[in-house]
């Protein structure tokens, strides 16, 4: 009892005088999670470009420094390698997120208010947790049975050409037949191939996510199942074994992630590649919208009471939805990009606000890779961006087309005509002392996420 009281005392003292704020960063493939975290840390350490963060503009952040992360069993976010990749002599995008990682950044801040002169600087620890968006989608499986998940998945697959090979193999199987492990493995492999093809095609609903990023679970029975049509299969059959493995996946993979990592998040960033989704067409837009709405059901949003926080309870208090790659558009279109992300996440945001969480939407570029220019074309002034093309390393000026002024047209499936998205490489940069990497509205994102705690 004495030891328990001591631990509780340490917990109260630590969180009262050196509070910890856990920020989760996720997004689906190609949304830019690694670049976002790297640039955010760099710009909090060197705050010359962070005028939108009130504490930085007021000069109240005395220092920012990296510390050993508190979770010894979680890989450290490799900030040093990532910032070197972005700012080196031959800049390139760092490797994408393939597993969970974490980093602690501590900010020493002078207080504000009437008693500011009587108090010294205090410390706020930011634990930034990076995890694949595909893992987030898995949380929606917790409330589904194998039959429900199979029915919903197979219905979607009927209209997707990427699933042709898997559906053909599925038709050749008898779910009621006795389990033969090689046939089960072949069926699961075909389903995994479909998920990879669907991701390359730009689809968002890619659960189970660990099939795409298996890590140490590769080849295990917990990743060897596939959706099957409904049946009253006997024990020992293919269908019963697939159902058992689906339940094992939820219990042994999804629930531990939720319990050990996700349920401890205070603030959450969801990065969305809106421009890439628009480029892929109306069906991809509808898929992304539905995926974001379903994703939010896992956030357990709402305000956390002080005592509940001290005793270990967590609820997500703020959620920022950020449309990335705003530097791929001229700044005159950024407001339209913001309206689009607001429309895409409207259903998800309303659900979060109803539960007591604060939500925000921004168009950002965590690392600005382009410059802007205007050209006369047939008597019309085209507002363009110039950058280094990712595919051939050549400089090019690019006009992607205009985003719609009314986002409802996109959500209604009307498409965007000839709108195109381009892939740029990071530009070489020379940073002045005190400046972090160039960005678009990263300071406003930081103000939303942590400004109230500074």
What key phrases describe this protein's structure?
454 residues; alpha/beta; Rossmann fold; 7-stranded mixed sheet; 4-stranded antiparallel sheet; 16 helices; 11 strands; 17% strand; YcjX-like; YcjX family protein
Task: Draw up the topology in text.
Layout: H1 2-17, E1 20-27, H2 33-45, H3 54-57, E2 61-67, H4 79-87, E3 101-109, E4 122-130, H5 133-138, H6 146-157, H7 164-171, H8 181-201, H9 238-260, E5 267-272, H10 274-280, H11 282-296, H12 306-310, E6 318-323, H13 334-344, H14 346-354, E7 358-363, E8 370-377, E9 380-389, E10 395-398, H15 408-411, E11 424-425, H16 442-450
Parallel strand pairs: 1-4, 1-5, 5-6, 6-7
Antiparallel strand pairs: 2-3, 3-4, 8-9, 9-10, 9-11
InterPro entries: YcjX-like
Protein name: YcjX family protein
Helical element count? 16
- What is the residue-averaged pLDDT? 87
* CATH topology grouping of the largest domain: Rossmann fold
Q: What's the end-to-end separation, in Å? A: 36 Å
The H-level CATH homologous superfamily of the largest domain, spelled out, is: P-loop containing nucleotide triphosphate hydrolases
Unreliable runs: 306-311
The H-and-E topology, N to C, reads as HEHHEHEEHHHHHEHHHEHHEEEEHEH
Summarize the biggest pleated sheet. 7 strands, mixed
Which radius of gyration do the C-alpha atoms yield? Answer: 24 Å
Protein name: YcjX family protein
InterPro entries: YcjX-like
Organism: Seohaeicola zhoushanensis
Pfam families: DUF463
């Amino acid at each position: 009892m004495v030891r328990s009281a001591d631990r509780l005392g340490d917990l109260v003292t630590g969180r009262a005088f050196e509070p910890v704020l856990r920020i989760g960063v996720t997004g689906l493939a190609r949304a830019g999670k690694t670049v976002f975290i790297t640039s955010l840390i760099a710009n909090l350490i060197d705050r010359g470009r962070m005028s939108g963060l009130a504490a930085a503009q007021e000069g109240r952040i005395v220092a920012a420094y990296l510390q050993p992360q508190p979770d010894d069993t979680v890989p450290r976010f490799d900030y040093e390698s990532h910032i070197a990749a972005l700012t080196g002599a031959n800049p390139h995008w760092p490797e994408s997120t393939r597993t969970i990682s974490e980093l602690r950044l501590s900010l020493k801040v002078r207080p504000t208010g009437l008693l500011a002169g009587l108090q010294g600087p205090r410390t706020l620890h930011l634990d930034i947790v990076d995890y694949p968006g595909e893992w987030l989608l898995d949380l929606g499986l917790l409330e589904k049975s194998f039959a429900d998940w199979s029915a919903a998945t197979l219905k979607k697959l009927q209209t997707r050409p990427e699933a042709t090979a898997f559906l053909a193999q599925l038709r050749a199987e008898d779910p009621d037949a006795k389990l033969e492990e090689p046939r089960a493995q072949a069926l699961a492999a075909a389903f995994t191939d479909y998920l990879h093809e669907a991701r390359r095609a730009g689809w968002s609903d890619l659960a189970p996510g660990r099939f795409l990023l298996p890590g140490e679970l590769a080849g295990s029975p917990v990743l060897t199942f596939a959706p099957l049509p409904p049946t009253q299969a006997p024990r020992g059959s293919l269908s019963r074994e697939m159902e058992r493995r689906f339940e094992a996946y939820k219990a042994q993979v999804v629930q531990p992630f939720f319990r050990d990592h996700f349920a401890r998040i205070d603030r959450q960033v969801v990065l969305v590649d809106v421009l890439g989704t628009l480029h892929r067409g109306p069906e991809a837009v509808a898929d992304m919208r539905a995926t974001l709405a379903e994703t939010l059901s896992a956030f357990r949003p709402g305000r956390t009471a002080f005592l509940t926080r001290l005793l270990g309870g967590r609820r997500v208090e703020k959620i920022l939805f950020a449309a990335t790659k705003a530097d791929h558009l001229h700044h005159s279109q950024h407001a339209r990009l913001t309206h689009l992300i607001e429309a895409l996440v409207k259903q998800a945001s309303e659900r979060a606000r109803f539960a007591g969480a604060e939500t925000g939407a921004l168009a950002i570029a965590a690392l600005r890779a382009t410059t802007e220019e205007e050209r006369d074309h047939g008597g019309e002034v085209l507002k363009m961006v110039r950058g280094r093309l990712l595919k051939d390393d050549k400089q090019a000026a690019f006009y992607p087309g205009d985003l719609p002024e009314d986002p409802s047209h996109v959500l209604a499936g009307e498409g965007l005509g000839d709108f195109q998205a381009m892939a740029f490489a990071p530009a070489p940069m020379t940073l002045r002392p005190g400046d972090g990497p160039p960005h678009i509205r990263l300071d406003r994102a930081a103000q939303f996420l942590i400004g109230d705690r500074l």
